[in-house]
Amino acid sequence: MDNEFEMGTGPKRFTYHELARETGDFAENEKLREGGYGGVYRGFLKDSKMFIAVKKVSKSSKYGIKEYASEVKIVSRLRHKNLVQLELLLAYEYMEIGSLDSHLFKAKSLLTWGTRYKIAHGLESALLYLHEEWEKCVLHRYIKSSNVMLDSNFNSKLGDFGLAKLVDHEKGL
Question: Protein kinase domain: which residues (predicted)?
Fold first, then answer.
């Protein structure tokens, strides 16, 4: 993976200090959500003029270094319009509308049937890419509404690859 960083083909590398600065030192008012791994914080990259979401694994996390390494290894190599891009902490593309579960279960907004279809179609496109179109088969293994993120146009993007597994197409499952 270090070779990919050096060649500029992998994800951009940030220092802890840079990500802390961009998230207001992981301020509570920048926290987007809390999961089993730790918190996700909103940040802003001034150079790129873009918002990011930074996953900070806590010391009390029930997920370990194996899941963290798996997520970095897999997500850093994937490129598809319906997958959240990894931009280590993990810094992701920020999805301002939030996750699908906030719209389905927390009454953040009412989703029309057209929007629901668009979200489902985007998720289907991401899964087709992961299972058949990429050089290896990626089994996500943790698809749930809180891992389906929505951009400002309600395009769905699949995130959280901590439990993902790479499988050769020829070997199958």
Answer: 26-173
- Per-residue model confidence as pLDDT tens digits over 28-48: 999 888 876 778 888 888 877
Q: Are 95 and 32 in contact (CB under 8 A)?
A: no
Provide the CATH number for the domain formed by 2-167 in this structure.
1.10.510.10
- Which has the closest alpha carbon to 159: 69, 117, 104, 98? 98
**Can you tell me the distance from the alpha carbon of 25 to that of 64, in angstroms, rounded to the nearest whole number?**
23
> CB of 44 within 8 A of CB of 23?
no
Whole-model pTM: value is 0.53
The pLDDT of residue 88: 43
Tokens coding 30 = 């920048």
Q: What phi, psi does 53 have (nearest 5°)?
A: -115, 125
Amino acid, single-letter form, for residue 14? F
Q: Where are the domains of the chain?
A: 2-167
Residue pointed to by tokens 């698809």: 143
**Which of the residues in the chain have pLDDT under 70?**
1-12, 36, 59-66, 68, 80, 82-92, 108, 171-173
